[in-house]
Amino acid sequence: MKKTLIIAEAGVNHNGDLNLAKKMIEIAAKCGADFVKFQTFKAKDCVSINAKKAKYQLQTTNQNESQFEMIKKLELDLKAHQILIAHAKAHNISFLSTPFDLDSIELLHCLGLEIFKIPSGEITNLPYLKAIARLNKKIILSTGMSNLGEIEACLDALCKNGQKRNNITLMHCTTEYPAPFNEVNLKAMQTLKNAFNLNVGYSDHTKGISVALGAVALGACIIEKHFTLDKSMSGPDHKASLEPSELKLMCQSIKELDLALGDGIKRISKSEKKNINIARKSLVAKKDILKGEKFSEENLTTKRPGNGICAMQYDKFLNKIAKRSYKKDDLIRE
User: Which GO BP terms apply (predicted)?
Assistant: First the structure.
């Protein structure tokens, strides 16, 4: 059975509060996610003091605060990472984090992470790509804001610097919070699979869960979705995130969809076999038929149940001689 891996993206929705981050781990585990993911960065190494906020960040945070000041408050230090990794282990959920700078890559490597998530914004950052490639970990690569040429260049950079290509999963993504439905272009996920012959997934920034489920149906092997304890909280990503009840519904729905997708072989299922004779039709006397009379369109029809002569034999019986008499609605028993 296909199993879609679910990443519950805590991101920076912990608001810099370690206790809130621990609570998010517990929620992700209870909801049925396979991974809970945070973001690892040092503000001084990934955002200049002159960097402007995105439009959605201006709408969801203090407009008088710079992007650097906003990001700085959301840092998680080494001790926080150690606490969160241990907390995730205690709740039987795998810990992931996205590094946003070179020191953060090294930090996560030293902490023993086996999977590295490359965010969409780093797909054109060659020094960053080289540093991750040298580790040759499993990579989940988000492709928001990029075209096929940029993705190909990114893959080339990774593979030339030590990364095994078959350890990379490409994530289709639309980098907007929330992403407009008419810009999701979900079929592009299949384009990525065909173009690069790699496993693909979907990092979802739309409202609700419908697009994530659509991605599973189209073959995503990983679904990533932001979540929060409360959409009304202050912070850049809360409003474009799922609340716990929504995250739980998404996880349950994906698992049901995995079951429903099956193996693609068209066969009669075990549960439906018993319904064949109930739902299908047999050859039946349309009216009383005397022995020796010819079967015709006037006296032969098809009705349930299906445990007589298959209705597909109708034409073969026309003009045959009845070997016995039949009452109306009798199954033909020739």
Answer: carbohydrate biosynthetic process
| Euclidean distance between CA atoms 113 and 176, whole angstroms | 28
The pLDDT tens digits for 159-175 are 999 999 999 999 999 99
Residue 58, pLDDT > 70, answer: no
Contact 306, 276 (CB under 8 A): yes
Q: Is the pLDDT of residue 59 over 80?
A: no
Where do the structural domains in the chain lie, given as residue ranges?
5-261, 270-317
Cα separation, 41 vs 103, in Å, equals 8
DSSP run (H or E) holding 163? none
Helices (H), the chain: 18-31, 43-46, 55-60, 67-72, 78-90, 102-110, 126-133, 148-160, 188-196, 210-217, 244-261, 270-273, 276-279, 314-317
Q: CA dist 108 to 151, 294, 317, 327, Å?
A: 24, 84, 76, 81
Distances (CA, A) of 61 to 54, 71, 152: 10, 11, 35
What's the CATH number for 5-261?
3.20.20.70
